[in-house]
Design a protein that fits this description.
Elements: E1 5-8, E2 19-22, E3 31-32, H1 38-41, E4 47-53, H2 61-74, E5 75-86, H3 96-103, H4 115-124, E6 129-133, E7 156-163
Parallel strand pairs: 1-2, 1-4, 2-3, 4-5
Antiparallel strand pairs: 5-7, 6-7
Length: 165
C-alpha cells in the first residue's frame, strides 16, 4: 500500500518520502503548484498525512479556511493534518485585532493565529478531533532524523487534527 504524504509550502525544507509542494520553483519542489488547487491534483480520500508548517498565516482567512477544507477532503478517513503556525499570543500581550494591525503591516503574513482561532478554523473545516501538541516526536509519519529538536519553538502552536469521517 502506498502512503501518500504531502508537505505543503515546503520552501527549502523538503522531506524524504513526502510530496514536497511549493508555488515557488526556486525551491525545486516535487510539485510546483498553487496550494489552493490541491483538489485538482489529488483525489478525495487519497492522502495519508499532510504537513502544513507555516502555511496558513500566508493566506487571508477565507482562503486559509478553504485550504483546511481541501486538506480534510483529501485525507483518507482516520488520517491526520499537522499544522504549525506562529502564535501571536506567545510573542505579544495584545488583543488579536491590535496585534494584526501591527504585525501584519507590510509583511507577507495575511492573518494571525492563536490556539483558539486555529482550533475553531480546523473544526469548521470538519476536523472533529483537534489536539495541540508540544512534542513532534509523537506524530506518526514525521520521523525525520534531520530534526534535532522535535519541539515547536516557543512562539509556535502546533495542532494534530484527525479526519474521522
Amino acid at each position: 500500500m502506498n502512503n501518500l504524504k504531502l508537505n505543503l509550502g515546503c520552501c527549502c525544507f523538503k522531506l524524504p518520502h513526502f510530496v514536497n509542494i511549493d508555488i515557488d520553483p526556486q525551491f525545486k519542489p516535487d510539485k510546483c503548484m498553487d496550494l489552493m488547487e490541491l483538489e485538482k491534483e489529488f483525489s478525495t480520500n487519497s492522502v495519508d498525512f499532510i504537513l502544513a508548517g507555516h502555511i496558513f498565516e500566508h493566506f487571508k482567512k477565507e482562503d486559509s479556511q478553504e485550504l483546511m477544507r481541501q486538506c480534510g477532503n483529501l485525507l483518507k478517513p482516520f488520517r491526520m493534518l499537522l499544522t504549525i503556525v506562529p502564535d501571536y499570543t506567545k510573542c505579544a500581550d495584545l488583543h488579536i485585532s491590535a496585534a494584526e494591525k501591527i504585525i501584519l503591516a507590510g509583511g507577507d503574513h495575511q492573518m494571525l493565529f492563536n490556539a483558539v482561532r486555529m482550533r475553531a478554523m480546523l473544526k469548521k473545516a470538519g476536523f472533529t478531533n483537534v489536539f495541540e501538541i508540544k512534542d513532534l516526536t509523537s506524530v506518526p509519519y514525521l520521523v525525520v532524523p534531520d530534526i534535532k529538536n522535535p519541539v515547536p519553538d516557543p512562539w509556535q502552536t502546533a495542532f494534530l487534527s484527525f479526519k474521522v469521517f
